[in-house]
Write a structure and sequence with these properties.
single chain; 557 residues; alpha+beta; Uridine Diphospho-n-acetylenolpyruvylglucosamine Reductase, domain 3; Alpha-Beta Plaits; seven-stranded antiparallel beta sheet; five-stranded antiparallel beta sheet; 20 helices; 18 strands; binds flavin-adenine dinucleotide; binds D-malate; binds zinc ion
């Protein structure tokens, strides 16, 4: 067993060098992925109610969304533009077509708005003035961060006929305000890019409590607003635990200063939690105070193969009990996901002209499942011994059929790129129906298998995700969007999830895609209270209309 272990290790180390040891600027590669992602298909269906009041809806496969336009919004006019220029300065009032095209299109190229205006405030006061004005004029507002969201929450809807949406991006508010080494509290503006915060903290000997594949582009304000989960939630918990304070601007321009830095503060309702995960529907997050863990010196990453899903589950249980406090990530992907990534890399290498002579580590025999296990601790020899003993035992018990432990940081990042590369590879493969589900771990993969039976040869069903958190990313990949395929997927996936008491949004949010599907995971009474909160904080419904809540609960005529 051990021999196999070591051989694989050497083999993979060699191949990894050839494949991945070129300098990889992670943020740049993500950004280029965003720019070049393709495979977007859309069909606009117009219903004949006369052009002024015509109702359009888009069918984007997974986002077949029928919504009614809120006719109470005003149309942007020249006076509005002049006002915004006055408070923000000319250059922060963007009307450039190319910039607007990007701002109107989501990362998946599935959702596309036609807003004519992007505003880039530099201070909380500017955000406040913009919102106050938009509220009084009844102009709809879309708060946008890095625009990496996957549920159509970050782009406008319905502006094809009448331009009433203003996109507000706080990307220019990207200062680090304070960092306290003793408590590990970071206070920063909401437009800070996650990866920049990671670099800043690295110099201080700390890390961010969240990490995700989009870190090169997403903003901390966007992360908070989506309550992003990511790769290390299993260790550091959710943003509801790590965010200590927020500054938020409400729809009427009022600034809520909740920017505390205390671990403990039980004075009344903890309102910041309303904004964590509210996807821009209750206010614009302008500042964030967040608890950051110390950077520990010893990190190990194992890339493992398992013969079946049952072994992955048992491995998770074993990892929790044997690795305990040092376990910092437990991710999985199935062979269909691996196949896509492998193909994607081959294509990329061909394009880069590097294929010749490269030994692709993913060429070795395919396994059914792959698991990444990361440990983070403070004692190198102890941690290494611990993970090696765990891996050896797991191989002996037949839970792992093959595996490799990263020998250096380059190798570790190359393993992470396999897992983090799945969404990008899916985009390259064509149309993708994306679902982000919380399910009991033992049931999770049954859905993938059932979907394969339902869909037969018409589409590929891919399963990957944050196994340690019970979060499945179920993705269905087809050459193009197709109504027949879609009819096989929805509402089946939601009904199945609901039947197993899962959540239809584990970490991506509801956005536009699932605003009307909320009842699969929340009771009518709960949703009603959400509607009341929305009405209280945003009585004119200007903040991110048509998103998060069903139309009637978020729009008032
Ligand atoms: P955007 O996409 O711009 O916006 C997302 C939502 O937040 C929108 O509803 C928007 O209106 C709102 N919003 C943005 N900024 C603000 C603000 N300042 N105030 C109020 N509302 C705001 N997500 C995960 O949870 N885990 C993952 O592992 C993960 N991996 C990903 C990997 C890839 C390759 C990609 C493309 C996406 C991934 N995502 C993941 C989804 C996405 O990156 C996260 O949801 C991220 O938190 C969004 O941040 P953003 O700045 O891009 O926000
Ligand atoms: C991930 O875990 O890779 C992200 O949530 C993105 C996705 O689901 O595709
Ligand atoms: Zn995820």
């Amino acid at each position: 067993m051990m021999e196999k272990w070591r051989i694989t290790q050497r083999l993979l180390r060699h191949s990894s060098k050839l494949l991945f040891d070129r300098p990889l600027n992670r943020s740049a590669s993500h950004i280029s992925a965003f720019r070049f992602a393709s495979g977007h298909r859309e069909t606009f269906v117009e219903r004949g109610l006369g052009s002024a009041s015509s109702i359009k809806y888009r069918r984007f496969g997974s986002a077949a969304t029928e919504i009614q336009r809120n006719t109470s919004f005003s149309t942007l006019n020249v006076d509005d533009i002049s006002y915004f220029k006055e408070i923000l300065g000319e250059k922060n009032v963007i009307q450039d077509k190319d910039v607007l095209l990007n701002a109107n299109t989501d990362w998946m190229r599935k959702y596309k708005g036609s807003s004519k205006l992007l505003l880039q405030p530099k201070t909380t006061n500017e955000v406040s003035q913009i919102l106050k004005y938009c509220n009084s004029r009844r102009l709809a507002v879309v708060p946008q961060g890095g625009n990496t969201g996957l549920v159509g929450g970050s782009v406008p809807v319905f502006d094809e006929v009448k331009s009433c949406h203003v996109i507000i991006n706080v990307g220019s508010m990207n200062n680090i305000i304070a960092f306290d080494k003793v408590s590990g509290t970071l206070v920063c503006e909401a437009g800070c890019i996650l990866e920049n915060l990671v670099s800043f903290l690295d110099d201080q000997g700390f890390i961010m409590p969240l990490d995700l594949g989009a870190k090169g582009s997403c903003q901390i304000g966007g992360n908070v607003s989506t309550n992003a989960g990511g790769l290390r939630l299993v260790r550091y918990g959710s943003l509801h635990g790590n965010v200590l304070g927020l500054e938020v601007v409400l729809a009427n321009g009022d600034v809520l200063d909740m920017l505390g830095t205390l671990r403990k503060d039980n004075t009344g309702y903890d309102l910041k939690h309303l904004f964590i995960g509210s996807e821009g529907s209750l206010g614009i997050v302008t500042k964030v105070s967040i608890l950051t863990p110390l950077k520990l010196s010893s990190v190990n990453l194992a890339f493992l193969a398992c013969k079946d899903y049952f072994s992955c589950q048992k491995l998770l249980l074993e990892a929790k009990s044997k690795l305990g406090e040092i376990l910092s990530a437990f991710e999985f992907l199935d062979n269909q996901a691996m196949d896509l990534v492998r193909y994607f890399w081959l294509e990329k290498l061909k394009v880069l002209n590097h294929l010749e002579g490269a030994r692709n580590p993913l060429h070795s025999s395919m396994h059914n499942f792959y698991v990444l296990i990361e440990t983070t601790g403070s004692n190198e020899s102890y941690d290494r011994e611990k993970i090696e003993a765990f891996l050896l035992r797991s191989m002996e018990d037949g839970l792992i059929s093959d595996g490799v432990l990263a020998q250096d940081i380059n190798q570790a990042s190359s393993f992470w790129r396999i897992r983090e590369g799945v969404p990008e590879a899916l985009m390259k493969a064509g149309a993708v129906y994306k679902y982000d589900l919380s399910l009991p771990v033992e049931k999770m993969y049954d859905l993938v298998e059932e979907m394969r039976l339902r869909l037969g040869q018409t589409a590929k069903v891919i399963g990957y995700g944050h196994l340690g958190d019970g979060n499945l990313h179920l993705n269905i990949s087809a050459p193009q969007y197709n109504d027949a395929i879609f009819a096989q997927i929805e509402p089946y996936v939601y009904e199945w999830t609901s039947k197993h008491r899962g959540s239809i949004s584990a970490e991506h949010g509801l956005g536009l895609m699932k605003a009307n599907k909320i009842f699969y995971s929340k009771s009518p009474e709960t949703v009603q209270v959400m509607g009341s909160i929305k009405k209280l904080l945003d009585p004119n419904g200007i903040l991110n209309p048509y998103k998060v809540l069903p139309y009637l609960l978020s729009s008032y005529h």
